[in-house]
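INFO worker-7 received task bundle
INFO bundle size: 2
INFO processing item 0
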Amino acid sequence: MRNKVTFILMFFFILNLSGIGKTYATENKVSIPPFFVNMASLYNIPVDVLYALAIMESNTKLQNGEYAPWPYTMNVNYKGMRFASYEDLVYQSRLLIKQGKTSFDVGFFQVNWKWNGHRSESIEALANPYENARVAAEIMLEEYAKVGSWAKAAGRYHNPANRNGHADRYASDYAKILNVIRKNMRY
């Protein structure tokens, strides 16, 4: 996780120096895609909070060399996988469920099917970027109501029990990403 955060922070730093990259930075500003702006508005969660969570959970290097959260992402046993389409993500999810495996994360926000699948009507629904954002926002808002800090809420989103301090470390890394976005946000 530390290497990932260091990489993301260095990426933002380089973008700010060079002014390159349309996904995150234009004219030394972090550019938040309209999808995240719309979802944040719809679910009444700060846009920077939601976007930072997507970056933490599914940041991906695209074919054009830019980086962005990727909607068709899955994580199984700490192994991240990226799929070309919604259909591919759903197909792989169904295979896992058929094999009796339920603990895997899907989508922009890596919502865990085992622990949060009850929040959605099906794996097909949860794999949909819009539903994935709804469930993620719901969880973040619940955790924020308990702890009063977006960084701590993100930590609990990632690891509610804070086993071995994982939530605390995640919260620290998330806070760094969130601060970069807040300093440079443009949408």
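INFO item 0 finished
INFO processing item 1
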Amino acid sequence: MQQTQAAVITAFGEPTEVMDVPLPPMKTGSTLLRVDAATLCGTDIGRWKGALREGGKDQAFLKPLHLPFVPGHEICGTVEEAAGPVRDILGAEVRPGDRVISSYGHCGECYYCRVTRQTSFCAGVISYGHWQPEQLRGGCARHQIVPPSASLIRVPDGISPAVAASGSCALRTVMHAMEQLGAIESHETVLVLGAGPLGLYALAVAADRGAGRKLMIGAPERRLDVARGWGADRLLNLDEEPDAGRRVDWVLAQTGGRGADIVINCASGAAIVEALRMCRPGGRLSQIASSSGAEIGMPGALLFKGVRMSFPVMAEARHFYQAMVFLDLRRNDFPFDTMISSSFSLEETGAALAGMAELREMKPVIFPNAMPGDSVREYGRQTDGDIRPVRR
């Protein structure tokens, strides 16, 4: 095989184009994956629209976004070729036919790699979903090349490619957030802002770690229906309560006037002020959602509230591993597949991006090696077992 195909973003906000891409030479220690599933998230939408401009002095560890590029950073694939002996995160040799997800690559030599062990801040970090087509570092392609410095994590049997792909981003980010937050006590109330995949996974992990009460504010209603099935105790529909002050009052009413012990903001960077008002004095706030470069004003009084704030940026290899273990051990407690919405072929990647941007899709899944149309549904039955029909 000399080439593969990828869905390429050539203009911001426009339909993707499927292009033939030559397979680059395999470096020793790299792995060629046949992409089984690529799910989309809000970062993909921001990049597609051109609104998420990464890099610069404040984010020197991120590469600026340039056209054209292949989207998709939530990827589950099957090993087709390993260039030399390649081992997974636990030290077992990887062979063709193994199902895996991949952490990001890094240089292994810098201050962040060797001293602080925060590889997400490495200037040479190799994340996915924003590279030129010839790099094959995006999930919306028939193949992906995993760099030697990345860790491979096996996907447990019984976990669908779509759920595994979603776990490789949203859930591993939540695992990073939970590590920063520390233990959750049984008397504590956890408030999750945002009812998308990040918020749903945050809800599930908070419940699993013993939160006394789980509150969620988000929209639309169909996403809140999923949250009910995942164990939310109280829900507030953002569409029905557009006033921020009244939303704060709702949280205070649910918590004896104190505010939530822990707030996990998966909604937006701009919501951080509202999140601080919803958090009790001396509480904890995890700011997962990105600000997309927006300037955020904050009343000085909120800084004297004693709230301990944390900001998970991407994740380390251990968080990817923890995500797969959680999916495996808690599959009977949380219906993870209810998060996955419609399925699309590689040629329909643009439609999937548009559907998510318009909130018609919560977690669309691309099957790059399926054919367009009805065959996507058939492919989904073979690999996922419960894929919804394509929505156009």
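INFO item 1 finished
INFO post-check item 1: The first strand starts at residue 3 and ends at 8.
INFO post-check item 1: Confidence is low (pLDDT under 50) at residues 384-392.
INFO worker-7 idle
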